[in-house]
Design brief:
Oligomer: single chain
Number of helices: 1
Shape: globular
CATH superfamily: Trypsin-like serine proteases
Helix content: under 10%
Largest sheet: 8 strands, antiparallel
Number of strands: 16
CATH topology: Thrombin, subunit H
Structural class: mainly beta
Length: about 280
């Protein structure tokens, strides 16, 4: 049973409640069929990387749904397909590139279109793209177009999921997870010590191009979990970017690729044009 996290604005105060949706896994903008738990469980609040923002769908009555997305070119945001396969329209969906979006909920960046992988079936190929109306002039993340890291590798996660102590979470959190299994299209992670939770859907699982941490590389995006509690959960499953590369590049033709080095993907910062707020944690 999928549980949809819905935020409601009443008198300027954000409340969170849950409404039961269908039976298919990962059919809602949140990642898991679970009760509230820590966002990026055992993670820490983070202002790293403004390219990672909240994907917000405004609903009638002042409520909204949230996911996470990553800028991979000046106008394209990578997220999960199930974040775009519901009540989302061009008019009611925005991207907010802020570490905390509570005060800027109504001032997100407008979008001109969105699309999700035609092979998405509720579980596999769970990847989508949002096209911003205007380019966002900050450094995008790089997408992995090569072989993924091996099982046992620890990677980072950024996301905006719900919290156990504060269900009205509107801030970005950073954590680490370890690759526990791989298939041709997915990577599964175990806590190390963090795990993804509701609202982290579409968020990047990433590493860096070198030990010096020059460029963050998205290896996969959060899809779903198989646990009733994020904080003590066993695993989270993600969609590998190299497995859906053709779909991504069909639309985001200027996306930054790991095998490419063209500007603005080379992480050379010119004349202060590129805004980099993050460093390798």
């Amino acid at each position: 049973m999928v549980i949809r996290l819905v935020h409601t604005l009443i008198g300027g105060v954000v409340l969170a409640h849950f409404a039961v949706a269908g039976v298919a896994a990962a059919a809602a903008p949140e990642s898991f069929s679970i009760s509230p738990s820590p966002d990026v469980s055992h993670g820490t609040a983070s202002s790293l990387w403004p390219a990672v923002g909240a994907v917000i769908t405004l609903l009638p009555g002042g409520s909204f749904e949230e996911c996470t997305g990553t800028l991979i070119s000046p106008r394209w945001v990578l997220t999960a397909a199930h974040c775009l396969n519901g009540d989302q329209t061009v008019a009611n969906t925005t991207f907010i590139a802020q570490p905390d979006y509570g005060s800027s909920l109504g001032s997100g960046l407008p979008i001109s279109s969105f699309v999700f992988d035609p092979n998405y079936d509720g579980l596999s190929s769970d990847v989508g793209l949002i096209q911003l109306t205007d380019p966002l002039l900050i450094q995008p993340f790089v997408i992995n177009d090569l072989a993924p890291p091996p099982v046992g590798t620890t990677l980072y996660l950024l996301g905006y999921g719900v919290t156990q102590n504060n269900q009205n979470n509107m801030h970005k959190q950073l954590g680490t997870m370890m690759i526990s299994a791989e298939t041709s299209g997915t990577m599964t992670f175990s806590p190390s010590p963090s795990l993804a939770c509701e609202g982290d859907s579409g968020g990047p699982v990433f590493g860096y191009t070198s030990p010096a941490g020059n460029a963050p590389v998205v290896y996969s995006t959060i899809s779903y979990g198989n646990t009733s509690n994020c904080a003590t959960g066993a695993s989270a499953t993600t969609t590998r970017t190299d497995a859906v590369l053709n779909f991504i590049l069909q639309h985001a033709t200027d996306a930054c690729k790991l095998s490419g080095s063209q500007a603005p993907c080379d992480f050379v910062f010119r004349n202060g044009f590129d805004l980099r707020l993050g460093t390798n944690p």
